[in-house]
Specification:
single chain, alpha/beta, 5-stranded mixed beta sheet, two-stranded antiparallel ribbon, 40% helix, 14% strand
Length: 361
Amino acid sequence: MSTICTSSSGVSVGGALGRGASANTVSIKRLSSWSLRSVTNSACPKPGAASNQRSRHVRIVAVACELPEEAGRPISHWTHAELAAEVMNRQVVTSISARQVGRILAEADLKPHLSRYWLHAAPADPAVFAAAVKKVCDLYALAPQLHQAGLILVSTDEKTGIQALERKHPTKPVRPGWIERREFEYIRHGTQCLIANFEVATGHILSPTVGPTRTEQDFVTHIEQTIATQPESPWIFITDQLNTHQSEGLVRLVSRLCHLELDEETLGVKGKSGILQSMATRKAFLENETHRIRFVYTPKHTSWLNQVEIWFGILVRKLLKRASFSSGEDLQQRLLEFIKYFNQTLAKPFKWTYKGRPLTA
């Protein structure tokens, strides 16, 4: 019989199971809390029954913490029935039902049926990455003071591929004893792209643009229309490093609106020389802190750092998830109506707690 190897920090899954060893560990403190509770609530007439039951529960949890493929099963995740079959096959127990396995996993707070995305984004230069994150977080912290000084700080991005889906039959509204019912089938009316500016200091959405495309010119036009709402104010746009956010058109727009009077030789030619030579040279120009209008770029794989992404989540929950749109134009109009409603009734700055530095104990 395989044994359970314990340490002060955890229970070794591999040591507990013999085959199918895994590097995963389960906290012994946490296992103790649920296994003792389970044993206490059970009838244990024999002196050693509690210890034996606790041992079996720990080993069942350990199996659940393995990947099924490590146990030779060609599935992506465990079900209660498959776990029951596996622990009986390993002779952890002689007999157990899927329902019993479910209760054991519930007490251990294990949910094999659930998953979420995770990205391990290792930056090429951690120091550069940390500095870029800190710059954005510092601006968020200073947003109220910048706003009082007349500077407009916005978080800008596109939400692409918003589908104009029309339900084939009208939605049946909620009533006592009945939840809302939405028609399963739908009619497609194409997609729209929303370019939004979330003003960090106030929580308002400024000068949104809705259209069928997301091109370099679309973004340049959006930025120009946004700045035109307060043409003499200083602006900072926080955005990601998409190529259309570092384009030739954007360089020329900033040069013109900031009255920099750059000659063609200084601007150069895209792909050959000058400011326009490469994405890196254009980015450096657009980030120039001496310009009245400038851009601050979030590092790669940090959409969570851009506050407008949080607002896009609100848009999905409050409108897009359950609405029906009769056409692309209807979707455009409903988006703009929602933004007006949001600005009037819901807008407030987000409470940004991350300070741009590693968490410490």
